[in-house]
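Inverse folding, one chain.
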C-alpha cells in the first residue's frame, strides 16, 4: 500500500466523551439544501458519506438559531422547531452509525443579511451598530434586551444539540457575521459595555459562550470559530500581535471554549510579522493553551474566494507540512472544506496514499450533495 503523506492526520484522538477516528475535521460549508430549513434524508446521507470515509469530526453547515433575522435564505437549515430538530437527529444517528462524530455550527449572520431576504422578509438585519462589514449602514443596532434574547437562543440551541445526540457545538464567531461584528472595531461602534476597547467588544461573545456552557454538560465540547479576515475584507485584523490575540481569546477560553477553530485562507501563512512564524492556529494554542483546529486550502490548488494559485504550495507539499505541524503539536486538528465537498472519499484517499485519485474541487461541485 502506498504510504500516506500525512499519517499523523489519521491518528485517533480524544474528543468530548469519546474518540475521533482521525484528526480530519469537515469544515462547515453552507449548502442551502434543506427545504424551509429542515434537513432531509439527502442531507443526512451527505454527512454520513464523509464520516464513513475517514473524517473524524463533522462540523455542519451554519444553522440558524431561533431569531427572525438569523440567516438569509429559507433553505439554510434551522436549529429550532420540532421538524428541523427531528431532521438533525436523523443526521446525527446516520453519522454515528458509521463511527463518526458531528457537531452543529450555530449561526447568526447579523448585518450580512439584506432587507427582504427569506425566510422572514420583513425582519430587518441586526448588528452591533447597524453597519455592514464594508462600513455602510444596513439594518438596525441591537438593544441590550435584544442581545439578551439572542444569547438565550444560542443557549437553547446548545441545549437542544446535546439533547438530540450531537457530540458538541461550534459557535460561528468568524467571517464578519454577528458575533464577529461585535469583535471587530469597524462594525462595532457601540459606546455601552458591548463596545469600545477589545474587552468590551468581546463581551457579547463571552456571554454567548457562558450561556451555552451553563446548559450543557462539562464534557460536551464548545468549539469557537473565529477569523481575522472578513467576507470581502481579507486584510482585516482583530489582533495585530500575539499579545492582542491573547487579550481577545483568553476571556472566551475562561468562559468555556474548549477548542478554537482558527479560520485562515492558507494554512501555511505566518500570522504576525517580526515574531515566530506560526500560523493563527499555532499562535492561538500558544496564547490560550487550548486545543486548536487549523484550516486553509488543504486539498485544493487555490485559496477560498481567490483565483490566485497556491504557487509552490502544492497539495502534496501541504499534506507533508500539515503532518509536520501536527507532529510538532503546533495544532491538534485540521479542517478541510472544499476538497471534502467535491469528494466524500477524500480523507480515505489521503490516508491510503492515493491523493492522485481524489476528485478536485470545482464550482460545479456546489450544485449537488455528493
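Residues assigned per position:
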Amino acid at each position: 500500500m502506498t504510504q500516506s503523506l500525512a499519517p499523523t492526520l489519521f491518528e485517533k484522538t480524544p474528543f468530548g466523551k469519546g474518540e475521533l477516528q482521525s484528526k480530519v475535521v469537515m469544515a462547515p460549508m453552507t449548502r442551502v439544501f434543506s427545504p424551509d430549513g429542515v434537513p432531509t434524508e439527502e442531507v443526512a446521507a451527505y454527512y454520513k458519506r464523509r464520516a464513513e470515509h475517514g473524517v473524524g469530526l463533522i462540523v455542519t453547515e451554519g444553522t440558524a438559531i431561533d431569531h427572525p433575522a438569523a440567516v438569509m435564505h429559507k433553505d439554510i437549515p434551522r436549529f429550532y422547531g420540532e421538524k428541523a430538530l427531528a431532521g438533525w437527529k436523523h443526521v446525527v444517528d446516520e453519522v454515528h452509525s458509521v463511527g463518526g462524530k458531528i457537531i452543529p455550527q450555530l449561526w447568526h449572520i447579523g448585518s450580512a443579511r439584506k432587507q427582504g431576504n427569506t425566510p422572514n422578509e420583513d425582519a430587518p438585519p441586526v448588528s452591533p451598530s447597524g453597519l455592514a462589514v464594508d462600513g455602510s449602514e444596513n439594518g438596525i443596532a441591537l438593544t441590550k434586551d435584544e442581545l439578551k434574547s439572542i444569547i438565550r437562543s444560542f443557549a437553547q440551541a446548545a441545549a437542544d444539540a446535546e439533547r438530540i445526540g450531537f457530540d458538541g457545538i461550534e459557535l460561528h464567531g468568524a467571517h464578519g457575521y454577528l458575533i464577529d461584528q461585535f469583535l471587530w472595531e469597524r462594525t462595532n461602534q457601540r459606546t455601552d459595555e458591548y463596545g469600545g476597547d477589545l474587552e468590551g467588544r468581546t463581551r457579547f461573545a463571552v456571554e454567548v459562550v457562558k450561556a451555552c456552557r451553563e446548559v450543557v454538560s462539562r464534557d460536551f465540547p464548545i468549539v469557537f470559530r473565529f477569523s481575522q479576515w472578513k467576507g470581502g475584507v481579507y486584510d482585516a485584523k482583530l489582533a495585530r500581535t500575539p499579545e492582542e490575540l491573547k487579550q481577545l481569546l483568553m476571556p472566551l477560553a475562561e468562559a468555556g471554549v474548549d477548542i478554537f477553530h482558527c479560520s485562515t485562507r492558507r494554512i501555511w501563512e505566518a500570522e504576525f510579522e517580526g515574531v515566530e512564524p506560526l500560523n493563527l492556529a499555532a499562535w492561538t494554542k500558544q496564547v490560550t493553551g487550548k486545543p486548536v483546529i487549523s484550516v486553509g486550502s488543504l486539498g485544493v490548488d487555490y485559496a477560498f474566494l481567490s483565483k490566485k494559485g497556491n504557487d509552490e504550495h502544492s497539495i502534496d507539499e501541504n499534506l507533508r507540512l500539515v503532518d509536520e505541524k501536527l507532529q510538532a503539536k503546533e495544532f491538534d486538528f485540521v479542517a478541510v472544506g472544499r476538497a471534502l465537498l467535491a469528494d466524500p472519499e477524500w480523507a480515505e484517499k489521503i490516508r491510503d496514499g492515493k491523493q492522485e485519485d481524489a476528485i478536485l474541487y470545482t464550482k460545479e461541485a456546489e450544485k449537488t450533495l455528493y
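The CA atoms of residues 222 and 258 lie 5 Å apart. The longest strand covers residues 222-230.
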